[in-house]
């Protein structure tokens, strides 16, 4: 098919075409991280001879079954393997034009997910925005964030951040090859949601990522999300090794155990373990938010935002949140996010609709501590150092499940991608006929930001102002969007002592 055969630095790829958009799927951006390369930084891919088929997605990272996206929201079953370092590309044409490039980093708590989910299909972005879209897989859970430095020595100094190093390797591949697909390596925007946004927050702080992207979008996450100290990550690694029957320092055992066995050993520990970037002093020298505070990303404009009711999504995966009484709920919140000042408890109990159940009121503490607070700190530090910041909040409340999810975590993704039609999406967002009026402004604002470094576009009903310390303005996305001055003021002031 004309225009689908591409020569990269590593070999030829045969892609496909859907409508006016070309695609290449399952493209290797690094060697398979298996054998001696397990828990090691990614290495450049092996060149190949002949033409490689790039019309189908490749295997995704090793991961558990995901109740939410694998069941309720209808994710397609995908083969899983440690050999998972692949990316996917959508482009209006491999024609020598230098288009802006948007690189999507998927979420999933660093536990599950992939770049090949239908929710992240890049067709609409490519068709509507004349941009090139790249989605990536990266190592997750025990394969991507297994901090072995203290237990296996210097050879494993950065094993706790292999997942982030994979993302950097994908961005390097983009620098080397994207021109062949009609993209401009000097106009790269990274964007992600949840763990993907936490990844973006970490990449903003990582020396190795410097110069690999020029703009960033953080959806429902920041460099403060899902982060582990080196000490905590070593404790987790020790527990997993014990569960797997691997002695610290026994490299032969570490490499011999099957991927399935290792994953199951880790999963059997349940909430005792958590995965995410590790402040290891090497790949990630210090806390990403602290790095922003020092101005490490002063030259990177960002969009950053949250959904209004982030944590409500997790009541779908763990309904016990909705069954607890006030005191039990507060105990659980304290255990999850630390002490909550009494003035904050009083504020949440008395805000909003009086008829709301107590769990709905108090779970807003989780939304603030895990998502909103990191967003505000990121915005403040970037603004302090002169970077342009645009803030948003997504307020559309889904009618599914009797409306209890409200404007929950991940709800904005299909709106941003203009993928309202994809499998399983209606199970989360509902099937209202007017939802395009939310999607079109967001979708086009993201395109405008990737093209111009500014999200303002004709589809927005009013100008989206740059965030500053005077107004702290944010755009509120809903059926009719509006700009609001300092929408997080009350919460920010209540929590100020905790910051």
Automatic annotation (TrEMBL):
Alphabetical list of SUPFAM superfamilies matching this protein: alpha/beta-Hydrolases
EC annotation from Swiss-Prot or TrEMBL: 3.1.1.-
InterPro entries linked: AB_hydrolase_fold, CarbesteraseB, Carboxylesterase_B_AS, Carboxylesterase_B_CS, Type-B_Carboxylest/Lipase
Source superkingdom: Bacteria
Enzyme class name: hydrolase
PROSITE patterns: CARBOXYLESTERASE_B_1, CARBOXYLESTERASE_B_2
Entries under CDD domains matching the protein: Esterase_lipase
GO molecular-function terms, A-Z: hydrolase activity
Keywords assigned by UniProt, alphabetized: Hydrolase
The Carboxylesterase type B domain, residue ranges: 4-481
Keyword Hydrolase applies: yes
Similarity comment: Belongs to the type-B carboxylesterase/lipase family.
PANTHER family for the chain: CARBOXYLESTERASE (PTHR11559)
UniProt-recorded name of the protein: Carboxylic ester hydrolase
